[in-house]
User: Fold this.
Amino acid sequence: MDNQRLLLFVALSFVMLLMWDAWQEGNAPQQTAVTADASSSVPDAPKDMPSAPVASSNTASVSAAAPGVADGPALSTAEPLPKGQRILIRTDNLDVIIDTHGGDIREVDLLAYPVAADEPDVPFQLMKDRLPNLFVAQSGLLGSGEGVAPDHYAIYQAEKTEYTLAPGEDELRVPLTWDNGNGIQVVKTFIFRHGSYLIDVEHKVINSSGSVWDGRQYRQLQRTRPDGSGESMFIYTYTGGVIYSEETKYEKINFDDMSEKDLSRDIKGGWGAIIQHYFLGAIIPPQDEENLYYTKSPGDDRYVLGLVSPAKTVESGQSDTFSTRFYVGPKLQSVLEELAPGLELTVDYGILTVIAKPVFWALEAIHSVVGNWGWAILGVTLLIKLIFFPLSAASYRSMANMRKFTPKIQQLKERYGDDKQRMSQAMMELYKKEKINPLGGCLPMLVQIPVFIALYWVLLESVEMRQAPFILWINDLSIRDPYYVLPLLMGISMFIQQKLNPAPPDPMQAKLLSALPFVFTLFFAFFPAGLVLYWVANSVLSIAQQWYITRKVEAAAANK
Assistant:
């Protein structure tokens, strides 16, 4: 089998695998949502609270029971979380809404990332406390007795309802205050910075109660299973939980995992996140701190991933502060790798990360020169073709030599007819006599396939491709070509490549191969334009290489 056939079969298998993954994700059995009606209320012991950590020699045992909230507001299916006073915070990157009910981060709009290219003034909403696709960031304290620490059902007091990071300012602090009336006061402060998607959160415990206060900090991300709106059946990207530790590195915990079993694991440093295509919410603890990482599935089709810190003791008349960080924003690798070890892996290239990272580096380097991601894709495609030119040349020379013997192979076919065994023996004798290696065209191509697939994932996963324009009618490389021009060009280029290759002797193989350009044109009509642009460029360069090398081989044979 020649290398063109092998590449086409592998590529078709790859496309079918992607479709199968997407179908499995979209049609997998989901937990039945049980939503609260107007008569329901928040339970006395919320199931979305972390379980009590096991006491150890250096930490105090803490009760995880939440304060009684049976008198909380009734919840509707559209608003599954209780609401208090809303506080609006605006920075140069973010619009954030914090609710005084729990001091949760309830809404996050990313100002630099419009929801669509044709709606530049409407920012993408990463977090919201409404259905569908609820996604919020919560944090609180777990005290050693009821009512001595504010969890994410506590009611805070706010000084203002609006805060803005003014031009020229580097930092904005938003304080909320909770007081139990018995000498325990907690000041929960959110810290925003210029040009950053990082939100620092501090819980300062002020103890004037006359007795010792013991407690821990917890912080968690809560979201519902995505409803699948806007997803393509041909493209699947992971949405779900991820944790990272030095021992296990990057580990996915999907929503089904959370439904089946609660996670409970002590990890020093690391981070926990819920990721989706292009964006993520992440909890980043102090890297010298050991936390209990946990997941819960409290019902209502909601899933929780969080961390509980070691305990702290605050003597009466003293104060102490718990600190943590939330990242809510795009998957920018250069930013993420500075925040915590391995956080850049949320740009999920899969098992080919070791290849994909240098490919992305080259893509980014070319973009820094040309200023256009479409031209950067073309530049990387050309660079890859140049790197693999010796292998491609060997492959095309082998194919050109095979092409010379097509008439002889046809004669063997006519002589032996349907006797496939004798036909195979005769062909092997021909290969041996003429010193032809039938795998000579296949093996060089096999080496290149991992690079091709890695580039596919780079173009699919990189947020830099989102709404990136190219030229003319292509104003967003992350969505399909609106006029299907690139898929048609790809189909034409595949057809031309087939004509340059020796025809397979098997009629069934010949029919299958002749149908592949049409099949791929149909598939790629729904693929992001950036991916199809790469495939078209790769095919055109392959045609040029193959035509040039074939002509050289034929000219050399004619001169003998």
Remarks:
- Residues 355-558 form one domain.
- Residues 529-558 form the longest helix (30 residues).
- The chain has two domains: 33-338, 355-558.
